[in-house]
Amino acid sequence: FHRTHMLRMCQNGMSFFSLDRPFQSLLYVHDAVAQRDFEPALPSVPDDVLEEDEDSVKIVSLVKTKEPLGATIKRDESTGAIVVARIMKGGPADKSGLIHEGDELKEVNGISLECKKPKEIIPLLACSQNEVKFKIIPALSKDEMSNKKKLFVRALFDYDPVEDPTIPCQDAALAFKRGNILQIVSMNDDTWWQALHIGDSSSNRARLIPSQQLQERCPFYYIVHLFYQNYSGSRRSFRLGKKSRWARERARSWRWSTGVHGLVCPSTYTEVIPHHKDSKERPRLVVLVGPGGVGVNELKRRLLISDPERYGVTVPYTSRPKRKQENEGVEYHFVSVHTFEEHILNQRFIEYGRYKGHYYGTCLDSLHKVLAEGKVCLVDVHPSSIKHVYTCEFKPYVVFVKPPRIEELRLTRRRAKFICDDVGTNPEEDFEDMMDMAETMESHYGHLFDKVIVNGDIATALRELKADLKKLEEADVQWFPAEWFCSSPTTAQRSCSHLSGWI
Ligand SMILES: Nc1ncnc2c1ncn2[C@@H]1O[C@H](COP(=O)(O)OP(=O)(O)OP(=O)(O)O)[C@@H](O)[C@H]1O
């Protein structure tokens, strides 16, 4: 029965009962209930009550009755904060649903609880009338507690929600680029995680990103494309560059050792942890990788010439006899076959091979020597060899040198002197090989690359590389793969199974 309805009926003479006192009382009660007049009026929250960190502060007003609030408080031993120890079931605090165990009490009725003992707080509550106003920092939920560990990841792919038809809400999604650092704040949903973009001060709100599981559901065409690309019969080998035969050997052995299994598991995210630079720390090892002939050696050479005080390169080891004009430790370290093989057995080589019956290789000792001089050590290896230096000791910064689009490759390499072992080679085939190999390297080892430099115009590529390395040297905080700090230091196997350990 609505009051106006009843009044209208009365006014129309359709009186079921006279407007005597009980009926008036009924209407009065109805009005009071409808307007929630029975609750004491709570004053609005003053503007100055919120601090800068307003996200984490909550103002709670509870109606004070004769009944206790039904909560116990205690002083946290480690922080000194006053926290809610218990909420008694069925009590006013419990019924309100606004105060929870673990909440930190900052103020009671505008009085700061800093340095106060629990027994000093009880009288504050006792003397409040009608309402008690708390300023609290809510306790973290179980989910938030797990985020306390702060899980950071480096994105290993570009993501643009505009191009993703599966995203449940485009406005709530986070666009990111490969290499961006994200803090995962919720993994509750199997398909969409919530993350913050570290370093993007414009937004401190969590947004949706595809979960690892979702991202791994690689579209079928992608798998088929990669499968055929790798199993379409014998691929041509490299013919560009001075080390064409060596490169060819490397490429061949690598091509058949990888197999298709890695392809069905695209790179998603890799766990990283922040590392604050220590002034006494040795510079990071800079590893340059790329398909044969792309210009890895050219960039390394130019970088070295540009600042020989800052950069250093390793001297390779060889079992080849020293030539007249050569000096020990300059062109090579000349060692016997026996010594070389001993080093192999002791896993002292990052990479080694045989060429014209002689061993050649890059020894860990050479890296240590350059780093001990306080120089940035530049090495170029096949990406499959990165694992030998993928440790906290070397903290490698891996730069992938990528060929530009084929048209630009033709244009820029027209005048380049490719010294080829094979007679009558077709540069066009070499370019195609280079492009193919770059794509395959990226799909297999892209998760290890910190930086991708497209080597179109050599001067531009060098400038970009120098600027990037300078930025790296100056950064106070760097993001290192979590696996460097795990017990097994040489595990560069960033397979899906590795990620499933923590995700
Ligand atoms: N951006 C560029 N523009 C034109 N020529 C280039 C460029 N980059 C490299 N070159 C030339 O291409 C040739 C191959 O380069 P480089 O020797 O550095 O290749 P690489 O990646 O080290 O391969 P490899 O290990 O097979 O030698 C060289 O003659 C080099 O001068």
Automatic annotation (TrEMBL):
Name this protein carries in UniProt: Membrane protein, palmitoylated 7b (MAGUK p55 subfamily member 7)
Transmembrane segments: none
Ranges where the SH3 domain occurs: 148-219
Pfam families registered for this protein in UniProt: Guanylate_kin, PDZ
Keywords, in A-Z order: SH3 domain
Presence of keyword Ligase: no
Family membership: Belongs to the MAGUK family.
Domain PDZ: 59-140
Residue span(s) of domain Guanylate kinase-like: 283-470
InterPro entries (alphabetical): GK/Ca_channel_bsu, Guanylate_kin-like_dom, Guanylate_kinase_CS, MAGUK, P-loop_NTPase, PDZ, PDZ_sf, SH3-like_dom_sf
Record carries keyword Lyase: no
